Fold each of these.
Amino acid sequence: MFIDTHAHFEMCLEERKATEEDMLSSLKENNVTYAVQISTEVKTFDWSYKFSKRNKNIFFTIGIHPSSRATENDLISMSNFTQKVIEANDRDRLFGIGEIGLDYYRMRQPKDNQIRSFEYQLEIAKKFDLPVIIHSRDAKDETLKILKSKQPKKGLMHCFSGNGKAAKEVLDLGFFISFAGNLTYNKATDLHDAAKFVPLDRVMLETDAPFLTPVPLRGQKNVPEYVTHTYRFFAGLKNESINKIEDDIYNNFLNFVKVNP
């Protein structure tokens, strides 16, 4: 079985003009057993939650992306929504708080706003004893500094983009590392080195769909079932069977969510 630990289903549905049923059928046909719907702004929380509730093999997150607006009211709404999910006894559907972090590449939000939002959301994760799903682009040092300061209980560095040295810094935090479709790109040699370095009990794989479509499908819009291509490429880098990679990532997934899907 395959697992896509990071996808934006609402964007995929809009991009492909497909139905929810069509997309879920495609997952089943490609043996993608579980997937995670990632929230990026307040207006996606309710859709993500209901999407997960409708589909037992879909988990979801609650979080405000560093490129999204995060006013004080937005952050309070996020905390209240998280409490609502916990009180509804739906903790087992909630993959974590994310995606949150820093993005100094796009800079769609001022740096100070990004840091304030990031730190506030880390506190929400600690309050509700939830893992965090981290986005960090061109902001590695500051991201790691804040994580070391706030010390979330558990975390996943989504769409890892560094080399082996950077991977070690993330692993030293006790985090898992997730690789996306850009791992399959020929010129991504730093990523290849990092993937070889990361131990199999600390890795997950994702699509970040509809972005970062893997080889051999580059040029198309990404969808969650394409995670199978990243699995196969990763297995080749590790010189392991695809079945072993599937089993290890499944066990990591269970360890992360701490529930039995």
Note: The CA atoms of residues 171 and 247 lie 20 Å apart.
Amino acid sequence: MKQSELVHEQVFAGDFAEEYARKHQKIAEKFGHEMARKLAQRGFGGGRILDAGCGFGATAIVLAQALPQSEVVGIDLSEPLLALAAQTAQAVGLAERMAFKKADVQKIPYDDDSFDALINLQMLHIVEDPVAMLDEVERVLAPDGFLFMADIRRSWVGWFDKVFKSALTVEEAGALVRRSKLREGVFSSDLLWWRYEA
């Protein structure tokens, strides 16, 4: 199936951001639990975690709850989504260990090796320059840091849901990773998602 034009809605309007968060809450939390479990399995006791493209913050908040020795930072370009993330972190008592900042994943405003773990969800097929984003992910992640990426996968599901027609195949994602400076990792996939872990 040929990749279609990007059909993702803009998430910069406040009303839309709230609806977007409601529609994606469960999957974002599910990824948070998955990432927290994998970090724990790998012996991650605490440190700085970056959610690059955090949206409304649900994944980051689950990580902060599950890993109480960690500081979690989320960056995104949508001010309404970031406001929702900050409000939720405050409401659940995590504001002291969390920060949400407006920033571009293609130009991450942190020093080299700033984070011990980094997650990046549903971003690779959205950004203008995915290789630049991957290079930035590598730059800010410590050499021994943990990386978890996931995105929707283009497949026959796109005949029923237009969003999936705009996604990348696993092969296309792999080609982008190989063109970037991103560390070597492992791809896996299922019907809806591909994952890359290092």
Note: The chain is about 40% helix and 20% strand.
Amino acid sequence: MATPAEKLAESLAELQKLQNDRGIAIIKADDLSRTHKERLTDNGFIFEVIKGWYISRYPDEKEGDTTSWYVSFWNFIASYIDSRFDKEWCLSPEQSLSLHSGNTTVPKQLLIRSPKASNNRINLTHGCSVFDSKVEIPSVNDRIEIGGVQAYSLISGLIAVSTDFFIRHPIDARTCLAMVKDASQILSILLEG
């Protein structure tokens, strides 16, 4: 009969397979058996973000420590939202431009757009949430993938963003404007309507 340490080692081997396949382990309930999930959760190697979705963490993290969450946030969002909407979603123009500018700060509420959405707020861990809006998204040509996250392209984001973004996030806005190599890129789209 296997010892508890051998059973935990077996569960850790399953977790390692997921980490090797995906880089960082964002675990959907179906990815591991119930037994492995319970062992890994009880020993602090994974924790549940929302029902049926887990992320890996160091077992010596204290309760309430946010390090694993903030490191995994964007990978978690990409996996979770892709599982719900396939690739038919994108961030709001404001949050898209923040990513374009290199600002990967985790927002308290992430705004997702998708024609498949249900205008629903999903509470995550550590006071974060996702709000999915049932809104049309830009065409494939006007979207870009940034680290697995669907976002407005730089030009379409600058056109779609509200003026409030330039006031509330001046550094992100200036960074994005500086990335535009030729004003005709924006002008041609604006002239089309």
Note: The helical segments are 4-22, 34-42, 67-85, 93-100, 154-160, 163-168, 170-179, 184-191.
Amino acid sequence: MKSLKHNGIYVPSYGYKGFSIKIQGHSVKLTPKSEQMAITWIRKKQSILSPPDEVFEKNFMQEFLEQLKQEKPSLNVLKKKQEDLLIDFSEVSKYLDAEKQKKENMSKDQKKKLAAERKAVRLERKEKYGYAEVNGKKLEIANWTAEPSCLFAGRGDHPRRGKWKEGPSEEDIILNLSPGSPRPLGNWKDVVWEPDKMYVAKWADKLTGKIKYVWFSDSAFIKQNREKEKFKKAEELGKQIKAIEQHIIKNLDAEDETKRKVATVCWLILKPNMRVGDEKDPDEADTVGAITLRAEHIKIEGDTLHFDFLGKDCVRWEKSVQAPASVIRNIKHYAENSNEYLFEGVDSKKVSRFLSQKMPGLTAKVFRTWRCTKTVKEELAKSPVTKEDPLHLKKFHAKMAVGAEEGGRQKNRFSRNQNRKEKV
């Protein structure tokens, strides 16, 4: 980018109501933060489709009580064990019930009027925050609203579900603006200029520590050009895949152990379509990829490998695949001799260096992009959908094809959702 101008991003604010709760009969006045936590919790408790489970409730209560201890350090009742405390949220529950009843009692005309007012406000905000000027051209911004505070849900059976995920304030947000561009009004953390990175704003997530970004829309030319380059590299890889596959097979028997390990990891990405697996933070859920496989995740029967572990988004990844003798031998050896991970000492950088020996500039990410694209294309070719079929049917088969790319994640999600409906 040569220049970037925008008006910052929209940061939602919470409207404090002044509620109290009762703990062991003691009335406790809530602050704006603890009140927002309480309201969000009761909304979750009232949910029919996704009520909180035991882990969710335990995590929330732990966070909520810690917050109350910070707000009311002299309140002795908070010194009791979490499981011994009786907390009464009835004031919050009554408010939410009244709001729900008020909405149900509205006439159709009132509901239409309210919806029109909300739409007008959204359009006004989008006009202000939803666009940026890049190199003199007006581009749409994708997620121009900062994430509001909420209860963390994660995907699958995430161990941190129920924890409080506090949204950023202006003081947490860094804006990306070119020199000379007007600074938007607001108490922003900082203004920087990073022309090689296609973001408008960024901040550190207060729960995970990960950096969150506000990006340009997928329809923006600058983003489409970068995506084209990535898939162009993947397309080029498709033409050289036989030579790369031979490079992998050859090094499965290499004298150097690191080469054997890296080659085995590459085979797992190429054949069972496994992700690399070293992208997550240490404190995240125990999700697994090729690099982070442990002996417990693999069962060997003859020339067949059976995989069973939590994959991306904590969704169970199950697959069986036939493997050459060299792969079977390597995995058996590392399973018997590793301290924790089968491929200790291997990371995505080493995988990229190994692959670039046959194709300069080839990275583990591009290799995975090519493999996923190939799988989706194969799955789409199997689907019975035709050009004349309705859009919803085309979308269904497209989602199923993408699900197959991740080892049946989409199928697992459908099964899990169905189970939830049956319980309800």
Note: The first strand starts at residue 4 and ends at 5.
